[in-house]
Prior knowledge:
The chain is an all-alpha fold. 82% of the residues lie in helices and 0% in strands. It has 6 helices and no strands. The longest helix is centred in the C-terminal third of the chain and has 27 residues, at 105-131.
Amino acid sequence: MIVESLAIIVIVAIIIFTFIRRGRKNAALGTLPLLxxxxxxxxxxxLNRSLSSWQRYIMMASVTHSYDSIVLxxxxxxxxxxxxxxxxxxxxxxxxxxxxxxHAKAIRRLYLAxxxxxxxxxxxxxxxxxxF
Length: 132
């Protein structure tokens, strides 16, 4: 789902650029954390691929060594899921911090629900695509 992540990054970047051009820098800053989960997915996929190839190399090279059980206990898909989860948690923390600048309680809740919901659903889709 790298192409989908890149498409989301481009769309959110266009939205941020539009906010900046209209002089709404706070709105642009509030939209910025929407990029974290797609970037986390791309980073996780990159690490997943490199760990997979590295793991195969270690398996072939360490047939006679005893340290392979430590190195091979790292599962590349687990690292990918961990990175997506951490990016979701960081995005949630940034949403909470950004929502404190919103004075109206209803708008603050709406901001948290929409942005948090978007990032959570996106993370669930990325993780379910990895698992199934």
